[in-house]
Amino acid sequence: MIRSMLLAATATLAFGLPAFADGILIHDAYMRVSSPVAKSGAAFMTIENQSDTADQLVAAHSDIADRTELHTHKEAADGMMQMLAVPEGFAIPAQGTHALARGGDHIMFMGLKAPLKEGDHVQVVLDFKNADPVTVDMQVTMGEAGMDHSAMQGQNSMQGMSHSGMNHMSQGN
Predict the structure, then answer these.
(1) pTM score
(2) Gap between the Cα atoms of 75 and 53, Å rounded
(3) What are phi and psi of 19, to 5 degrees?
(4) 5-30 pLDDT per residue, tens
(5) For a Cys-Cys bond, which of 19, 62, 88, 95 suits 26, CB 3.0-4.6 Å?
(6) What is the distance between the terminal CA atoms of the chain, rounded to a whole angstrom?
């Protein structure tokens, strides 16, 4: 019993640590819970570039889905939000940050191989233009990293968003 508690505490502490490589620091990385029938999921985080050279997140990889892409949201002429692939990636300024957040830039996982369940951990590798790849251990949660999630049961982050153009605009990995 004590051994199990220690292992659980160690896993929780390890999750709380940011991932770091070549001046790139990843903070508050998490993935959203998916429904049992969902075919896609999303990941969010803050990427900090502590170096004096601008960099760029150019790709992400994980074995949880058939395809992983960098995406953003853009308002269409009809006022609906559309999700678009961003094959060139996201700029991370020197000595600056770039947030991957709900309603904005994010990592999209399409063709999920299994549902994303509360408390699961997922390994995601981030590829940068200049820095070495960074492997991030992301916890699957109902809310945002570091938040009290108890009041968020039943909320759906994808409500009100049109995915109709995704297949035409996506670039496969």
Answers:
(1) 0.72
(2) 32
(3) -85, 145
(4) 333 333 333 444 466 567 999 999 99
(5) 19
(6) 43
Number of neighbours of residue 13 by Cβ within 10 angstroms: 9
Reading the block at residue 50, the tokens are 């502590």
- The Cα 84–Cα 118 span in angstroms is 26
pLDDT of residue 76: 87
For residue 20, the model assigns a pLDDT of 56
Burial status of residue 60 (CB atoms within 10 A of its CB: 0-12, 13-18, 19 or more): buried
108 touches 83 (CB < 8 A): yes
Pairing of strands 81-85, 161-162: parallel
Token pair 């709380």 is found at 16
Here the tokens at position 15 are: 């999750």
Helix (H, G, I), strand (E, B) or coil at 66: strand
The answer to whether the beta carbons of residues 55 and 170 sit under 8 Å apart is no
Distance CA 134, CA 62 (A): 12
CB-neighbour burial class of residue 169 (10 A; exposed 0-12, middle 13-18, buried 19+): middle
* pLDDT tens by residue, 85-142: 999 999 999 999 999 999 999 999 999 999 999 999 999 999 999 999 999 999 999 8
